[in-house]
Amino acid sequence: MGFSLTGSHVIFFIAAVIVAGTVSGAFIAVTMNVTNSLTERGNRLQEQLDIDFKIINDPENIPQHPFSGSYLFYLKNIGGKKFSATNTTFQIFIDGDMIATTTYNFSDSTVSVGEVTTIYIAATEISKGDHVMRVVGPLAADDEFTFTI
Prior knowledge:
Radius of gyration: 30 Å
Shape: rod-shaped
Largest sheet: 4 strands, antiparallel
Strand content: 25-35%
CATH architecture of the largest domain: Sandwich
Number of domains: 2
Strand order of the largest sheet: 1-2-8-6
CATH topology of the largest domain: Immunoglobulin-like
């Protein structure tokens, strides 16, 4: 005696359930990976959006420090959290050329939300005339400022 029609249907049903379970397990794993990736990317984007700053000088009147002769640029934290303001966390470009970290410094090592720090740039780095300064900070936040000396 062979299998009846019901017996073969039961075997096909069990095989279909096993295949469906395997496929749904794979979909769940892929969905969890995508969800985790999107969460991580969202967190990185949130951190990047929280760090923002603006150079707030008068572009026609850049002050100089009376003793050192350094030019003074004012950097305001307009982001959502405080950041570290040091020569290792910021890079400064004048007319497209990166200036040495030894030729500039900040008045404060951390800048809270809404506060302003001063960037002191050696006068030897900036000649008379029109210039473009780009300040790049943590998480690649940046601001560009056109000014005249």
